[in-house]
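Please predict the structure of the following assembly.
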Amino acid sequence: MQPDLWELYSLMYKSRLFEQAVKKLWNDGKISGEMHLAIGEEAVAAGIVSHLKEGDAMALDHRGTPQMLMRGVDPVSLLCELLGKPEGLCGGMGGHMHLFSEQHLAASSGIVGSSGPAAVGFALAAQHLRPGAVAVAFFGEGAMNQGMMMESMNLAATWKLPVLFVCKDSKIAITTVSSSVTSGSLFNRAKSFNIPAKEIDGTDVEMIWLAAHKAIDEARRGEGPSFLLAHCSRPEGHFLGDPLIRITKNPLKEMKDMAPALLKSILKPKGAAVRERTESLSSVTSILGQTTKAQFFNFNDPLDMTRKELKSDKNRLEQLEEKIEQEIKQIVINALNGNTDNKKAVT
Amino acid sequence: MQPDLWELYSLMYKSRLFEQAVKKLWNDGKISGEMHLAIGEEAVAAGIVSHLKEGDAMALDHRGTPQMLMRGVDPVSLLCELLGKPEGLCGGMGGHMHLFSEQHLAASSGIVGSSGPAAVGFALAAQHLRPGAVAVAFFGEGAMNQGMMMESMNLAATWKLPVLFVCKDSKIAITTVSSSVTSGSLFNRAKSFNIPAKEIDGTDVEMIWLAAHKAIDEARRGEGPSFLLAHCSRPEGHFLGDPLIRITKNPLKEMKDMAPALLKSILKPKGAAVRERTESLSSVTSILGQTTKAQFFNFNDPLDMTRKELKSDKNRLEQLEEKIEQEIKQIVINALNGNTDNKKAVT
Amino acid sequence: MKSKTFAQAIDMALAQAMADDPNIIILGEDVQMLRVNLFSRFGRDRVRNTPISESAFVGAAVTAAMAGLKPVVEVMLVDFIGVAMDAILNHAAKVNSFSGGKWQVPLVIRAACGGGYGDGGQHQQSLWGWLAHIPGIMVVVPSNPADAGGLMLTALEHAGPVIYLEHKLLADYWLDYMGIGDRKTVTFDVPPNGARGPVPDKLSPVPPGKAAVRQKGSDISLVGVGVGVHRCLQAAGSLKTKGVAAEVIDLRSVSPLDIKAICESAEKTGRVLVVDEDYREFGLSGECAAVIMEAGIRAKYARVCTNDTIPYSRDLEEKTLPNTERIISAALSLMS
Amino acid sequence: MKSKTFAQAIDMALAQAMADDPNIIILGEDVQMLRVNLFSRFGRDRVRNTPISESAFVGAAVTAAMAGLKPVVEVMLVDFIGVAMDAILNHAAKVNSFSGGKWQVPLVIRAACGGGYGDGGQHQQSLWGWLAHIPGIMVVVPSNPADAGGLMLTALEHAGPVIYLEHKLLADYWLDYMGIGDRKTVTFDVPPNGARGPVPDKLSPVPPGKAAVRQKGSDISLVGVGVGVHRCLQAAGSLKTKGVAAEVIDLRSVSPLDIKAICESAEKTGRVLVVDEDYREFGLSGECAAVIMEAGIRAKYARVCTNDTIPYSRDLEEKTLPNTERIISAALSLMS
Ligand SMILES: Cc1ncc(C[n+]2csc(CCOP(=O)(O)OP(=O)(O)O)c2C)c(N)n1
Ligand SMILES: Cc1ncc(C[n+]2csc(CCOP(=O)(O)OP(=O)(O)O)c2C)c(N)n1
Ligand SMILES: [Mg+2]
Ligand SMILES: [Mg+2]
């Protein structure tokens, strides 16, 4: 089987525009708290979520907007939730880290690593109540060091549960380079639980779709869990307003606040040897450097890759993009006015 | 380097007699709660603890009496602690699952898996304050599925901490056959964290001593953690009074209580299909069978193996055993009277 | 009504419910042996042994409940719940609220609790008041066989997460495993009417959040839960000989708390003594004081609780856990 | 005395202590950036980034403390402490007792707490009363820069484990990261005297378990902690215009609780209103009631707390967290 690239692109493009709209609304002060965008991860979401059907479940982390959208949650009620409106998916009670849709068996959590146990529980229910259904856990490479995630892999493999563990490797967890706090490869870690593992380019939606197809198919047939390690980059940083991004974007302004205290600390008597202090400084600079790189140079936009293929039918592509742009505009308008489908359905 | 088998045997024999005395005192009602003996695991304890010196640390689980004894904790104060006496190592406040000796940097806990983080913390302190010192974590194969244990392995490897992770594989955790709830091999699991791992016969004190020698040496030189997987069997069961042991030892009596309810349950309408019910029953029987086997047939006594080698000097062996027997007798008498070394030192 | 043990009544409630509802499953370490009767009747898919991975399997039980199962997940002893606390604090208790009231978590978390058999401070905690602090979970603690069965049904019928705590001095098999071990050389202060008692042939649920007045009295209200109730009853017997008529209230449910029952009794007697095997500070005993003061009732108040980490030694343990003497002497102080 | 921010005062206390004591180390996720000044001065061995493995690294901090280090271990937000709860409940809090008082755990656990910036119920909890339930740990919650620095020194000097909670509305960098994110389009109800204030040039520790009377008054006692203190002070201002003289007590330390300060004020005013951003039931507000009743003081009592999971929406959040209006109206009810 081959993926329908048009469908995948349309999922990705919609998600991209949706999150860009979210960014604007957040900047306007209409969305509160930490808003984690998943721009750059659309291929992973689309390549996997497009396989899901009724009875399948998703366990999401703090970065789950695209998956909810792609799974078919009403976009206006989703956006209303981010806006904290009573018309929101969760009545404004959950917010962007706590998106829940019982109908889609989709649950989120802001606790890093908790999508592991959550997917295991969904899969256990599937095994009892909906044979053939699967559960997908989405999480970052940082979450792989959370004990409950590793426990979940063992549990899923032991019980041969239909779970697809999807690790989106952004190489960084907030400000910590994950390789500096992780020993051994995540690929081998998954395999050590006897879970078939595959490492993959997280920007290649076609490859992801194919890998997910195989893994989900096996899970549906009762052959147990799989692990996908997908490498992505994420130009919007950890969350909107990410200080690392701010510094790299506007070093003069941000450094003005930061530099004096830093300089004073470095020059203070008592403390580490000069060499160690220099090392500290250079490790800070290196994180900032990596952030800059990830943002400006290293960003393999998953949309570009697919768009290139679809350009063979330029007209269709333009029409599709135009249609989605209109859709998103309307979604934003409706959300700001609180006109959700839910509401329509009720009234 | 080669181990001093006489020294190792004397540690093991002392521990064996000490725990046999504990068993008697427990049967007499003088020791309360769950008393987990480590009879059968003496070679693992002796082969490793004999390498430790001042500044080294031990993190123990619920089965840590031999290690405390072998590390040089005053045996009378140790026994007084099990007896819950004010003269005990911890004034009777801790008991057999919570043996603590600051002098030996030895800490215990009844929470399965917690010896992982505990050893990591000891090793971190060693890295800062006592370069060249090491920390050993003792735990069972069941504890390897506890998230904090896996996290600890990653942490120790990341920070190149001087930790020796010692997994005593008894194949069973209370009544659960560990292979039935564990996916993949524990050996590969440890290796996936980039930790050098070795699998070993837990009754062969010489091999254990040599493996520990290498691992501890490397740790002292700053080369990071190692993992030892030692297979043991444990004829005394999970704890004293273990119902599994009771049933296998005295099936008529114990089954008299258990069988009627079981039979009734199996025959009740509503429930699983007959085949599944039979499966349940046979899995219960199989655990009992394994318990019997472990107890009566499969017990490779680590003491026998060493004793055989030492029999070449029969006189010396007899003298040594005689001396230790006397020692233990005196320890019991002193403990029952509350005559600890601590006390002598104070008065 | 037959006389049954505390443990039999729980097994009975589970068997009754599991026969009716195929979605009830039991998860936990060693449950195939601990619940051997249920295992042999309902099979290994519905009575599942887990690895020692509390954070994963309690977390999994939360979403399993959200997706249509009714898991009874066991954490063996409540002391071990620390390992799985995130699943309770941030997931089980909050999903309903996060989802805007749209998604329920019908989950029972079962654990043994309590001390009095010399097992030390990491295996004898009660923690019910601690757990009840978290909004969104029900916490129940039966004190006798009929309630043990009834409250298990209450828990199974409740739409949200429930923590069900069984005291080891009441549940004979726990005491046997952890304390007796087939010895005739040890004795424990087991409340006989707690460990065994009449149980209806067909169990029905206890109304949620409903305390029971175990003894009427007009001079002082003794408020307790679990084994504490029996300590109160014993103390009430002694107090009677001293001319003091004590009322004994068995809360049964810590959360929701039966504020009405507490306040009515406080109003009547004007003296309240809370007996709580959980830790004294920031817990159940404080909450009882708060609801009385909030109601504007003027009452004298004292509490007999576990003030510190529970010592291993039987002597020290006995002094640390609420005992009848401490209750009597606190009650007499309130009377004077 | 210079005017400093809340966050600067904590950094200053740590720098002061770390310069004097080479055994103080900082562990936690992202601490090399969060504590960049300390990192650049004291180097990567003393300011260590951890993996996202709270149960391992908090557990490790316990034994590191036992073996001679003085770790300040950060769990980022107190909400995440559930993951590491076992290390606190069964290890940090109990080792001293288990060892018969022979072995200490000089550990500081630092976390940000509190809400008011629209981040939802899994990131805005307070939990101080919950944590204080466990015997063997000190829990401190500063309300202003001078105390933030002083209490950090108190924590570092304490022989046992201390949980140090900094409120995100007071610590400007937390609010910037989690709430503002460089936007001019959002506003938060930040207590100005909490977020910035005079700090002595050389900090000294606040005496442990000592509350501070922030405002004297004879009609009603408002008892709070953290941001709650500022809400009380604001309410006290309004109450004054209505002829009500409120006394405002800043507990500073939840455990040990300054019972004397609470009781003296209660005795004087005869009316106590506890303002607690932590959950209402089975927590700090109840404990305040208990100590007042135990002392035999007759006082009217009410509480303004967080009654349920904190909603995400700014409107609903505002109504859920204790706000000045709720305090004023509860106070006026007590006056009538
Ligand atoms: C248990 C827990 N610890 C810490 C945090 C704070 N936190 C939120 S996101 C995050 C980084 C997660 O990194 P990763 O899993 O790689 O996901 P990414 O953000 O890169 O997508 C951390 C540490 C948390 N939410 N929960
Ligand atoms: C966190 C936690 N979960 C469960 C228990 C109950 N428990 C005590 S010992 C044990 C089995 C441990 O098995 P293993 O690690 O193999 O050690 P063994 O007893 O075989 O030496 C269990 C489940 C506990 N003490 N702590
Ligand atoms: Mg990442
Ligand atoms: Mg074992």
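DSSP finds 15 helices and 14 strands in chain C. The CA atoms of residues 176 and 182 of chain C lie 7 Å apart.
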